[in-house]
Every structure is written in structure tokens, then in C-alpha cells.
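Help wanted!
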Amino acid sequence: MIIIGERINGMFKDIGQAVREMDPKPLQEWAIKQQEAGANYLDINTGPNAEDQVVALKWMVQVVQEVSDLPLCLDCTNFDAIEAGLEICKKPALINSCPADRPKIERVFPMAVKHNAKIIGLTMDAKGIPKNAENRIALAMELVAAADEFGLPMEDLFIDPLILPVNVAQEHAPEVLEAIKQTKLLANPAPKTVLGLSNVSQKAPDRPLINRTFLAMAMACGLDAVIADANDDPLMATAATAEILLNQSVYCDSYVKVFKSK
Amino acid sequence: MAFEVVKERYMSKVNEVVLGGTAETGGTRGHALKVGGQTTLPYLHFEGEVPNKPIIAMEVTDVEPNWPTPLKEMFKDVYNDPVAWAKKCVDEYKADVIYVVLNGADPDGANKTPEECTATVKSILEAVAVPLIIKGCGDGEKDNEVLGKVAEECAGENLMIGNAEQENYKSIAAACMVHKHTLIALSPLDINICKQLNILVNEMGLPLDRIIIDPMIGGLGYGIEYAYSIMERIRMGALQGDKILSMPMVCTVGYEAWRAKEAYSDGEEFQSWGEQSFRGPLWEAMTAGTLIQAGADILLMRHPQAVKLVQKNISDLMESNKY
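Answered by r_m:
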């Protein structure tokens, strides 16, 4: 299970302020904290308030790489900012994200191949997020075809079937699980799958419980990666346990510890 | 329709472990040996690196061995003299390593003192230039004393010392850590215990590249397939990035093969099995040859003819099959 630590995101108050003031400290603290907790990637998002996305994202990549050697997940809707970030990433990065819209595919996929980066492909287009699994899969197929067309290795494509909050869009959760299962059948080797896990519990009570329950269910359907709170210990323990129960990692009594130190 | 060679790319590799301390590292061995380091399944040179060949350690005991007669006969001129025995194995049979089993320490046997055992190890160190593997008599308490003493007195030689087990690992792991030796971690045909033991030993401070896995094999015809599949799983784990399973593996081939009556029995009632002198060494060689295919890195062997066959097998397997 690939854990993408979600915390370095301008939507959080401390990070938003740090980005505005160009104060590296909060970013670097969270980089280290998430790495120690067992994150495999660090998500980097400037937040909506950054004046210049290109400048902000580049600066964030720089300061985070000063303290952590984890690969980064560049989370931005501004592709110029992502490209600026890719140019200075020391390790192959993950682009977060590209929807199944032709103009965006044509912008993002060649850029990823050029920089040896991976892509999170969203199962949505200009019309929005589909209601059912079938339509999500139709869009996933377009992304898979794009990977072939532009020469992106299939294992470097992460399909995100887009989970919505369970309190207002409950019917989406089982459709997402179905979409994860079917995504794994689209190609051989199969594309990877990813979720922005915390979305499932937006504005609901006891978010950690909802998050970790859905994580276990999604892993049973074939989920490979998750953007989540790496410092949520019970969540990390759930991921470790699900990996064991899926026989993806050899069991030992210290399996939670092993998972976090991987 | 061109033919394309399917090549697996693994994300990780087997740890490379050094055996034997030379003058540069404070030891007296003529050379050090490396094992492990593979980036692919056994001998698939075409999709990865197999930088080190598996090595054969021949067994020498500090007291007369309780081996079956036809095997013991092979060493009749030396089995009462571990030094001469070790020299013969190196000079005549080209053993890569000498595997010294200190059966003399057994409290129910000769009950030799830790000092006596250490003296034996030291005299073998003086007689041969190859690295040594040292194993105790199997009595946990006594082995802790004996192996602790050997580790201390032979600091710098980078011995491989065994066995650490789940219920008894602290003292021997500490001795290996302090005196810079390599540890054999033995688990009873159980990959879960194997992994946990490696964690426990590593948590004491012994680096992962100073640990060797002994999966406790079964001999040919007596459960070898269980060991085979566990070893395959360990190796897959190593290649797929499980650091706790990335150790090279050692197999007690000689001990297990020569427990089988098929290896040592002779006479009327076993005629349908053919000649013992042919069957016995083959029993050991087949056990070794099989486990080599599952990823064995160090083979602990006994019979010179079996050793010779396996040496040939290894040199054939180490020839590149790159496309």
C-alpha cells in the first residue's frame, strides 16, 4: 500500500500561512513528521490563496526536498506550476492530477513521460463526476488508452475513481468500490488505483473511523495507493493489517511496525 | 511476430553479506567471501544480477562425529583431528568455508569448556585461510557461554555464528554485534517466525546485512518441498522490497540428507535402491541442488563426492544465460 501523506496542503491553516509568508518551517516539520509515520510520498498543494502557483509550488518542492528524500505528489490544477515542480524534483514525482479531458490529457501525459513522472488520472471530465461505476470505468479506459498512446508505463498510471462524502453522496461509495475492482481489469499489467481518502468523511462525525473502514474495504477491491493522513495511527494500522490479510506482505508479529518503516 | 524475452524488474535485492575478516578488518583470513546481492530469482542472469555464487561449507566436528558409518569412513584418517580434517576439506576438496560444529560442548557428551572449544576454533583458524562458520552443540544455555567466548576471542575474524532462535537469541546476537560477527537466525520452517526473529535481532542493533536466514530445511524425501516453497517466498519478499526477508539463506544440507536411511543404508533389504556408495552422495547432492534452485546461498555439506557434484552444478549455473 502506497501512502501519500496529505498534510502539506495550503488548505490547512498552518501551511496556507507558511506559503504566504514563505516560511519553510511548518512544511519541513510536516515532511519529517509524515515520513516518520510511514508515508511513501508527500502530497504538495499550494492551496487556493497562493499568489503565484508556479512560484509557490516550486518553492514548496524546494524546501520539502531539503529535509526529506521521499518522492513528491504535485497536487495542483495549474499544469505550468506542476511542470515547474517536476523540473526540480529529485525523484520521479506523481502528478496530481489529470481528468479524462482530451486537452488536459494532451498537456499532462507527454509532460509526465518527459520527466519520468507518474500520473493520477481522475475518472471525471468537463461534465463532472459520474454517478455510477460503469461511467467511471468508461473514463478510466480513456486514461488507460492515453497511457498507451503517449508511452506512459501502465504501472505509472494511478486511476482515482473519486470518492465523495458519505453523508451527502452515500450512493457513490459502493460505486467507487466497484470501479476500483473493474479498473484492475482494464489492462495487463493493470493500472494502479488511488483514492483521496479523507473526502469520504467530509463534515461527518468521527472521520477517522469512516476513513479507515473505507480504506480496508477499498484495499479488498484492489486499491494500491491512498492520499491520506499518515499521522493517523489507527489508519496506518488498518492499512498494515489489510495488507497482511490480503497476503501482500509476509506476516510477522511486528507487522504494523514493519509497515511504517517500509 | 518477433520473440520478446519477458524480463521481470524487481524493486529490491538480496543483502550482500561478507564472511571472514582479513588483515584489513582485523582478522587473519586469507580472503573474505561475499554471498547474496542477487537482483533476480536464482540464476536468471538475463533479467538481473547474480554477483556471488553460492558457497559450500564442509562440516568438521570437534569430537568424533556420530555420522552413519559409510559417511564417517570418508574421513577415517582425520575425524579425530579437527585441524587435519579442516585442512583436508580445504586442500583436497576445495571447500569454500569450514563449518565447525562444536558437539564436544554438549553437557551430556564430552562437556568441553568454552575455553577448550575456543582453542579448537583458534587452531582451525591457524590451519586454514578460509572463513569459518561456527555452530554450538544445540544446548541453549551452554551454547550461549561457548559461542560468547568464541565470538570474543575471535573478534575480527567475522565468523558466521549460529544459531539464534526465537526463544534464545539475545546473548548470541549481542556477542555478534559487539565482536562484529555474522549471525545465523534459525526459524522452524516458518516464514512468520523467520521475519519476526530478524526484527528482534535487528532491534538489538545488529545490522540487517550481518544476518543470515536458516529456514531449517528438510532433506530430500523428508519435507524438502516445505523448505523449498518457504525459501522461494523469502526470496520473492526480498526482491519485492521486504527488507526483513532480504538476508541470504543457509541450508543444513549434510545434516538433513544423511539422516535419511536412503542415504546411508546398505545390504540385502535395500538392494532395489542400488549401491549405497552412489546413492548416498547423490542424496546429499540432490538435496543441495534442489535448494540452490530455491535460492540457497550457503550450503553446509559433508560428503566429498556430493560437494564435487554440487561445485560442478554451481559453476554451470553461474554461466550467464543473458539474451
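OP: Thanks! One thing I noticed: Chain A touches chain B through nine residues (CB under 8 Å).
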